Amino acid sequence: MTVLELQQVTKTFGSGRTKVEALKETNFRANKKELIAIIGPSGSGKSTFLTIVGGLLSPTSGEVILNGKTISGMVERERSQVRLGEIGFVLQASNLVPFLTVDKQMKLLDQVKKGNMDNKELKQLYDDLGIEELRKKYPADLSGGERQRVAIAKALYTNPSIILADEPTASLDSDRAYEVMELLKHETKSKETTTIVVTHDIRLTEYCDKVYKMTDGILTLEGNGDE
Amino acid sequence: MFLAWNEIIKNKLRFTLITGVLLLVAYLVFFLSGLATGLKNLNREAVDNWKADAVVLTEESDKSLYQSSLTIDQAQEVKADETAILGQMSAIANNGDKKTNVSLFGIRSDEFLMPAISEGDPFSADKEVVADASLKEDGFKIGDELSISSTDIKLKIVGFMESSRFNASPVLYMDLDTLNRVKYGEAVEANEDRINAVVIRGQEPEKAVSDNSLEVIETETFIKNLPGYTEQNLTLTFMIYFLFIISSVIVAIFLYVLTVQKISMFGVMKAQGISSFYLSRSVIAQTFLLAFVGVAFGLVLALATGAFLPAAVPVSFDIPTMLIYGGILVVVAIAGAVFSVLTIVRIDPLKAIGG
Ligand SMILES: Nc1ncnc2c1ncn2[C@@H]1O[C@H](COP(=O)(O)OP(=O)(O)O)[C@@H](O)[C@H]1O
Ligand SMILES: [Mg+2]
Asked: Which partner from B34, B136, B227, B284 sits 20 to 30 angstroms from B204, CA to CA?
């Protein structure tokens, strides 16, 4: 089942001499329960791709369709709603609120959105991520790996239909990085979501169902694990 | 409120400090407003006690009771529901022990200017006076013989009325005859029907006189024209308004610094889809909380200080005025949050998550 579709999407920054074609005409499709990796060198357009998919950036041309809704034409207020309701972000930098405990990071989301996980589901999520004992701690008291796992919990808590992770393992050593990928894979399968992970670490692609490569704004399918 | 409250809990010291600053500003505002009210009372208490609608003075006196001089004949032409004549003179009274500035009011005991007696008897005979209660605190008592500057006549205190000061001096009420004898000395015969004003009660007081040399002045205007009254008020009011601006600026700077520190955090939240509206509301709720607590404590502290002040300090708290000022302080603090709100609205979530 198709969750996300990009039709002839392009993104150009600037104009004239400073013009950068960050994303050349791209067609892309992602299905439910898929864990997709996008690899590529720095400056190739990976983040541009992800922010367009995530409704943070409007494409120069083409359409982005998420769960049947064309988000590329929406104004910021509508896109903000889509992000809150349907997208879970796991970012390179910590996306935790420094003055909230792990539990309250989730409660904050209850303040702004309905239909999040119930207590039982949250407990299960904490167990899956191994952060149950961190519930009362503040971000400053967590290690980098713990923080990243809490960030994943936060992304999953709102029951998004798609999870977008931009270099989620960048600040972690390789053992931790594998753990995080393992978790993303597990959550993608058990929660029936779609996950797109941007990374420049080729070793992490072994966890993924599909691997795309980004070179100079051109996206190509590299490997297709399942088929 | 969730975000606002949790941030305060986590950063208690920071928020206690800003609340403390607001408390001090609020305290100062309340104290100055108390001083303003106290000084106002010092000037107008006696006039307020008259419960009059207007005062008739001579046109050429330029609204000054001291400069106005008319005759009882002229007073008889003044038409109003109720009228009362008033003679006035400023002097120094001395009971042999203490000296004080006083305002002598000469009236007729059967007219409405006759004060209610709270202690002792009303004046009746010659040379008897009823004194302002505040003189009791200065050591004056019933039976005191007062020598008055510029005359040999001695006045005797026979009673006290409620606190009644005029233009910063305690008032002594007496019969017009007594006053004129003190005032004119040997020349009293020629001046026995001289008065300073006619005080009136009634609707449409401006229609009370037909005589062109007389002017009807509404009570409030009369008070505003007391020497020093308006200047004093303006000074204190200006200081209070200035404090409003200061507290707004303090809050604005504090919140702005906090907000700038949190730009990337807000950006991440916005990327997640949390609206600028929610975040702004949180900053405003936080400001409200800080300002409200600071102002409330400032109010309590001001009232507590007031209770311990010696009577000589002219501070008198008018609770409705204080509540209005407190409300204004909270509102200007919230206005100070506007810069932070603008900053939040302008944050680009894309920048926060980086490329
Ligand atoms: N806001 C922007 N303005 C101008 N150029 C940009 C902007 N964002 C990205 N680019 C350019 O687009 C290209 C792709 O960037 P990006 O998507 O961040 O690459 P990656 O994430 O793969 O490192 C780069 O050449 C970058 O300089
Ligand atoms: Mg990037």
From this structure: B227
Under 8 Å between Cβ of A182 and A195 = no
Chain A interface, mutation test: which of B3, B7, B272, most A Cβ atoms within 10 Å?
A: B272
Nearest to A100 among B6, B272, B275 (CB): B6
Mutating to test ligand 1, I would choose from A12, A19, A20, A212 the residue with most ligand atoms within 8 A of its C-beta, which is: A20
B91 with B180, same domain: the answer is: yes
Residue B195, SS3 per DSSP: strand
Which chain A residue has the Cα nearest residue B7? A99
The CATH code that applies to domain A2-221 is 3.40.50.300
pLDDT digits (tens, 9 = 90+) for B259-316: 999 998 999 899 999 999 999 999 999 999 999 999 999 999 999 998 898 877 889 9
Residue A88: closest CA among chain B residues belongs to which residue?
Answer: B272
Q: What is the pLDDT averaged over residues B327-332?
A: 95
Helices (H), chain A: 46-53, 76-86, 102-112, 119-129, 144-157, 174-190
* Confidence band, pLDDT 50/70/90 cuts, at residue A225: low
Statement: residue A226 has pLDDT above 60: no
Instruction: Please check whether residues B180 and B91 belong to one and the same domain.
Output: yes
pLDDT tens digits for B178-190? 999 999 988 988 9
| Number of structural domains found in chain B | 2
Give the whole-angstrom CA distance, residue A174 versus residue B317.
69
Q: Domain limits of chain A?
A: 2-221
Mark whether B86 and B114 lie in a shared domain.
yes
- Closest Cβ opposite residue A84 in set B6, B265, B274: B274
Reported ipTM: the value is 0.89
Nearest C-alpha neighbor of B129 from the set B151, B111, B112, B109: B109
Q: Decide whether any atom of ligand 1 lies within 6 Å of the A205 Cβ.
A: no
Residue A57 forms contact with B (CB below 8 Å): yes
H/E stretch holding B118 reads strand B117-120
A46 lines ligand 1 (CB under 6 A): yes
Verify that B104 and B214 share a domain, yes or no.
yes
Q: CB-CB: which of B3, B270, B271 is closest to A108?
A: B3
User: What percent of chain B stands above pLDDT 90?
Assistant: 84
Question: Do residue B266 and residue B205 come from a single domain?
Answer: no
| Ligand with smallest separation from the Cα of A43 | 1
B201 and B309 belong to one structural domain: no
CB of A44 closer than 6 angstroms to any ligand 1 atom: yes
Each residue's pLDDT tens digit, B22-56: 999 999 999 999 999 999 999 999 999 999 999 99
pLDDT of B114: 96
Residue that has been written with the tokens 């960050």 in this structure: A22
**Residue B285: domain span:** 2-43+230-352
Contact A111/B at CB under 8 A: yes
Contact A82 B273 (CB under 8 A): yes
Cα angle vertex A215, ends A209, A216, to 5°?
Answer: 145
